[in-house]
Each structure stands twice: as C-alpha cells, then as structure tokens.
Amino acid sequence: MNRWRGAAVAAALAVACAVYAWAFLRAESQQALAILVLVAVAAGAVATRTRVFDKVPPVPERLAQAFALVAVAGLCLALREDDFSLLLVARVLIVVLACLGLHIQLGHAGILNFAGASFFGVGGYTAAVLTRSTGLPHLLVLVAGGAMAVLIGTLIVVPVLRTRGHYAALITIAFALLFRTFLEVNDSLGGPQGLKLREIRIGPWRFNDPVELGPFAGSFYLNYLALLLVLLAIFWIVIQRLERSWIGIDLDAVRLDETAAATFGIEIARWKILAFTLGNFLAGVAGAVSAHMVGFIAPNNYSFGESLVLVSILLLGGVGNPWGVALASAIVVILPEKLQVLQEYRFLLYAGMVVLILIFRPVGLLPRRMRRLASSP
Amino acid sequence: MTLGLLGQYVMNGVMLGMMYALVAVGFTLFFGVLDIIQFSHGDVLAFGAFVALAVWAALVKLGLVSPAIQLVLVVVVSALATAAVGALVARFVVLPLKGAPSLNVLLVTLMMGTVLREAIRLFYPGGSQPQRFPALLPTTGYDLGGFNLRLDNLILLAAGALLIAGTHLFITRTRLGLAIRAVAQDEETARTMGIDFRAVVLFTFGLGSALAAFAGAMDGLYYNEVYFGMGLLLGVIGFAAAIIGGLGNLYGAVIGGFLFAALQTIGAVALPFASAYKDVFAFAVVIALMAVRPTGLIGERASERV
Description:
The complex is a heterodimer of chains A (377) and B (306). Chain A is built from 16 helices and 6 strands. By secondary structure, chain A is mainly alpha-helical. In chain A, the strands form 3 sheets. Chain A has a two-stranded antiparallel ribbon. The longest helix of chain A has 27 residues, at 268-294. In chain B, the strands form 2 sheets. A two-stranded antiparallel ribbon of chain B has the order 1-4. In chain B, strands 2-3 form a two-stranded antiparallel ribbon. The A-B interface holds A 112, 156, 158-159, 162-167, 169-171, 173-175, 177-178, 181-182, 185, 259-260, 304-305, 308, 311-312, 315, 344-345, 347-348, 350-352, 354-355, 358-359, 362 and B 31, 37, 93, 96-97, 100, 102-104, 106-108, 110-115, 118-119, 122, 232-233, 236, 239-240, 243, 247, 274, 276-277, 279-280, 283-284, 286-288, 290-291, 294-296, 304, 306.
C-alpha cells in the first residue's frame, strides 16, 4: 500500500515538473514568466516549510529514474516544433551530464575541480579535430572526446593527489587559465576564432535533418535530445550504482576523513584517481556532444568563468545529490535565457545567488540524504 | 639579443614581480589571521584601480590639474575605499562563514569576486571596455646603452618596495602587528589575552586590500590601461605566488611573486616557442612545482593531528 502511494506521488511530481517546464518554455510574455517563477518559489517554500515530502514513503530509485526519463521525453515531444525551447532543453541535459562528472569528483571523492569547463572544452576540441581530419565514426568520436579529457586530466592528477585544501584549488585554477591561454594562442586549433564542425552522423542518420517518422515530424534537435537522454540514462545509472556499492562507501570515507579512511585500509589515491578520471570522462563526452550540436567552438566558451558556473550549479543543487544537479542546471540554463532582463546581469546574479546560498542555506536546494546502510524493513 | 632589450625585459619582469608580490602579501596576511583564501582579492584590486580612475576623472572635472596633488589624492582615496571594501567583504561574507568547510569559504569569496567584477563591468560608465589610465608620474627617461630607464617605473618600484618593507616592519614591530601575529598563531589564546579578534581581522583585511589597491594603481600607471577583468589573472597569479612561497609567510609571498614574474619573463624570452605561451609555461611550472612540494617552497609547518 505504502509503496503505491510513494510511486503515485513520484509520478505526479514528474508530471507536474514536465507540465511546469512546458509552460515555462512556451510562455512568451515577461509577466507570465514572472508569475511562473513566483509560483515555483512559493511551491518550494511551502514544500520546505510543511516537510510534505518527508511523509511520503521512499520510492525505489529505479522507478524515480524511469519517471524522470519519461517526463523529459514527453516534454521534448510536446515541444517538437519549437526549436528554441528544444535547444534550451538540450543545453540543460548537456550541463547535467558535465555536472554529473563534477558531482562524482566533488560530491563523492571531495575533489574540487575548477577546470570543469576546460575538460568540457577538451572534449569539444577533440571532436572538432577528429571529425575534420579523420573519418572516425561519430559515436567513437564522442568516446574519444571523453578519453582525451581523461588523458589530459592525468597530466595534473599527481599534483591534485599530493596537495590538499587551498593548495589543491590552485592546481585546477592554474590549469583552467593555462588551457584557455593555450587555446587562444595555438593557431592550429583556430586561435581565438575557434573551429567549426559538422553535425553528428550515425550511419544513415543525420542529426541536422528534421525528424520525420511516418506522420510524426519534429525539429532536428530531437535527434540530439534522444542521444543525450540515452547518454544521461547510462551515466546516471552508473553513478547511482557506484554510490550504492562499496565503492561509494569508500569514496564517502575518503571525502569525509582521509586519515581515518587510510587507517581502515582504504587506498585514498586509487579512489581519488577513479573519481577524477570518471568525472573528466563525463565532462569530455558532454563537451563533444555540445560542440557537434552548436557546430562551433571557441576558447571563450571554456573560460574559468564557465568552470565557476558549473561549480555553482553543484552547490546550488546541493553537493552530493544528482537530482539537485539536474534541478540547478535547469534553473541556471533556462532562467536567464527566458527572463531577458536577467541576460545582461547573468553572471552578477549567479554569483550573488551563490554568495547568499552559502551564507543562508549552505546545503543547497536539494541536499543529499543520509545514507541508509541497513536494509529497510 | 642586445643588452638593451634584455634590460627592458628584466625591468618589465621586476615591475610585474613587484605587483605580484604586493597581491601575494595580501593573500598571505588573510591566510595568517583566518586560515582562509580570500579569492576576491584580485577583483578588490581591480576595484581599487577603478576607484583611482574615478577619483582622477572627478579631479579633472573639478579643475585640479596639478599632477602631484592628483597623484596623492588618487592613491590615498583609492587605498582607503579599497580597504573599506576589503573589510566589508571580511565582515559580511567571510566572517559569517567562519567554521564552515574551507570549500565553502573558497567558493563564497570566488563568487564575491565575480560580483565585484561584474559590478565594475555593468555599473562603471563604459566599464565593459578597457579604460585609459592617466600618466600621473614624470615620464623622463635615462638612456643606458639602448635601454630606456624611465623615472616613473623607478618611482613605482621604490614605492612598492617601501610598502612591502613597511608592512613587514608594521607586522613585526608594532603592538597592532603583534596582535595580528597573535591571532595568526592561535585565535583562542589571543582572545583570552584580550585581543579583539574581529577588529584585528577587519584591520588585516583592510591593510591587505589597501596594498592591492596600490598594486592596481601601479598596474594602471604602468600599462596606462585598466580593465574590469584585470583582477582575475592578477588575483590568481598573486594566489599562485603566495602558494609557491608557502601560505602565511611574508617572505615566501615576495619570493613567490618575483619567481612567477621570472618564469613569465623566461617563458617570453629564453624558450624556443612563441612568447605568447609565456603564461602557459609559467602555470605549467607552478603545477609541476606543487607536485614536488605540495605545501610550497617554504613549507607550511603543519602535521596532521587526529
């Protein structure tokens, strides 16, 4: 009985989120958008105050994931002709994918990576160079983007492992600046002007052609959205499995207290390398998809400021909770695009928002729940 | 390469080193009293440079054209305003997070820096474009065998060296300096000895930020241009310098600053690849250095207590 109630609530929540997202993306006038924002804020405040969701019996993670997947797919189909809205949804999914990478690094192993946008950029540039100079199948190009990010990441893995705290922060910050400067002065990678690249092609499937399946027709973005949903589903499940396995417990131990973890025989370096590598791989793959979808890359897209945006998404969502990452990505990507007043003040607002969150609600919007090791009755 | 050109490069390196050292001293002071990194320090510097520019513009409008008076007012007002901003950041952003994980402090100050940077870009008239900074110092030069030694550069260097030496004397010789050192060594004991912890912290942040304002004005006077994003790179370099030297160590900060400038100069002059890669080279060396000495050249003396 309880299980059904939980599932029903989760399904209703997924539908409500999808409908809300649809309304928000389709809304034209600034007043309508302002009202929608207020509604969301009010709903969030009521939910936190009344703790209404604490009383809902827990839903199996797999069910929640399925609901979320169906909700996003449904949202995309409902928007099928609306190029701009679909582009926004696709960008949200790309950012979620990249932030899931940082989530493994920060939320699990406690490695703060200030070069997220750089590894994202490594993926993008790898995709550009490979598709221009070789005939490698494009799915492999995406994998290569991630692999290249891993490879570049190994260059700084030794200093990342050896340093702690403030000293560790310097490594990734220095790397982010180094990478951006390198892209700008390197003429074979297009210099400040960047590079153009083609659509993704998998066999006869061309991603930049409009979708036509019998009577159904839709924007070409649906191709990218389908690919992104598949990628996200795979990596999301991998991350959830990792978290619930003994690997996740080891990672938690490493993050919470390295000394204590070491005394229990946990090899700190191994788990940190695993998390760092996996995270960079995700960022690289996300970067490769993004580069293909936008069709153009330049050093400006991969600046230190962009890395900061990725970190602030993690923090806004609540470090350690992938659902929080998804929610925060949607807010940070869509809100400034729709509310034009915000466009110019975007970075100022992000930054101010994070400052306020850190002072007043340091756990983020959806904080991570305590791990329950005992099997539930 | 001629001797004159070499001299030019060395002079440029020393100027950069002095700016970096001034910024790094700020980082190291803040770390001393609160064990935190104030990542908005670079943008506080940019703020100082823009205050200096605004004061100059106001003085010109008022009809005060004597360069000496302009210079004094520009430097003093900018230092005071920036010290106030630094203290405000400490009071309302850093101190409320005392006891929070160091990650949160790092992020909050980084974001505070973004707030300052964007505020300059959006609210200073024409702030999104580089602004011309006036030449307030005499620019007479002495020709030394193909190398033009300019008076304004000499004055800037001397002033920077005096400020760092003065800061050092202040920290080691005065009662307030003693209080700062006491807080740096052990906050609780310092409190029980009757030291006003908050006042000392705010004062230290003001002092470090005033040094940054001077570095900002120095940057403006040297390049005759200021830019809203100038603090980002200067801040990261100053931080890198403080880290290479070893946090919490005044000498280390100065050494680190000059070392970074030396790396950049070597990258621009002595290495086979194009000089545009000088920052890539310098940062790569910093990362490599950190791999070898994870707590800086003059290591932080700390052991893990369980």
